[in-house]
Amino acid sequence: MNTNRLEAFSDGVLAIVITIMVLEIKVPHDTEPAALAPLIPVFLSYLLSFVYIGIYWNNHHHMLHTLQRVSGPVLLANLHLLFWLSLVPFATGWMGQNHRAIAPAALYGAVMVMAAVAYFILQGRIIASQGPDSLLRRAVGRDWKGHTSLTLYLVAMLASLRSPALAQAIYALVALMWLIPDRRIERVLSD
Predict the structure, then answer these.
(1) Spatial distance between the Cα atoms of 110 and 107, rounded to a whole number of angstroms
(2) Using one digit for the tens of pLDDT, what is the confidence trace for 24-74?
(3) 80-101, pLDDT tens digit by residue?
(4) What pLDDT shows up at residue 9?
(5) Distance between CA 41 and CA 35 in Å, rounded?
(6) DSSP of 40-100
(7) Which of 57, 139, 160, 170 could form a disulfide with 105 if both were Cys (CB 3.0 to 4.6 A apart)?
(8) CA 32, CA 28: separation in Å to the nearest integer?
(9) Which InterPro entries does the record associate with it (predicted)?
(10) Alpha carbon of 42 to those of 5, 66, 152, 191: distances in Å?
C-alpha cells in the first residue's frame, strides 16, 4: 500500500479529534460578556490540545513522506498512535472543566506520554521498514526533542500531584518547544 490512504485516514481521524474537542466548549445561555469567564479554562485547554494535535499532524505528515510503502507493522503502529490521540478530547475536556484538580491534570499527562510513546513506536516501525540506511533515521538522529518532551510529560504528571497549574504550564512549555519548526525531515528529503 502506498502512503496516501494511510495519510488520508490519519488526517480524517485528527480532524474528528479537533471537532470533538471544540464541541466541549459549551455556548453560554447568557448574552453578557461575563458569561464567557467560566469558559476561559475550557478554552485554554482546547487551545493547548489544538496545538498538540496540529503538531502531531504536521510531524506525522512529514514522517510519512519518508515512506515508500506501508507495511503491516506501520499500519498497526499508526493505529496505536491514533488511539492515544483520540483520547485527547476526553482528557482536554476533563482538565478544562476541572483545571485546579489533580487527577485531570495527571490524566492529560498520561495521554500525552502514551501518545509520545506511540509516536516513537511508529517512528521505529517506519525506520525498520526502510532498512539500515533509513531517511527517517538520518532525519531524527538522536531525537533530543522527542526524548525531552517525554521526560517533561513525566515531570508534569508528577508535578500535577502537587500543583495542577505547574503541570499545565509544563504541558504548554512542551507545546511551545514544538512550535519552533522542525526541519530535520525536510532537510533530508531535499538532499
Answers:
(1) 5
(2) 899 999 999 999 999 999 999 999 999 999 999 999 998 998 888 899 999
(3) 999 999 999 999 999 999 999 9
(4) 95
(5) 13
(6) HHHHHHHHHHHHHHHHHHHHHHHHHTT-SS--HHHHHHHHHHHHHHHTHHHHHHHHHHTTT
(7) 160
(8) 9
(9) TMEM175-like
(10) 34, 37, 23, 44
Positive or negative CA dihedral for 84, 86, 90, 96?
positive
Task: From residue 171, give the alpha-carbon distance in Å to each of 30, 33, 65, 123, 187.
Answer: 32, 29, 28, 22, 28
Q: Rounded distance, CA 31 to CA 33, Å?
A: 7
Other Cβ atoms within 10 Å of 105 Cβ, number: 28
Q: Which residue has the cell 492529560?
A: 108
> HEC states along 11-35?
HHHHHHHHHHHHHCCCCCCCCCHHH
pLDDT at 137 over 90: no
Residue 10 has pLDDT above 80, yes or no: yes
Q: What angle do CA 6, 7, 11 make, to 5 degrees?
A: 120
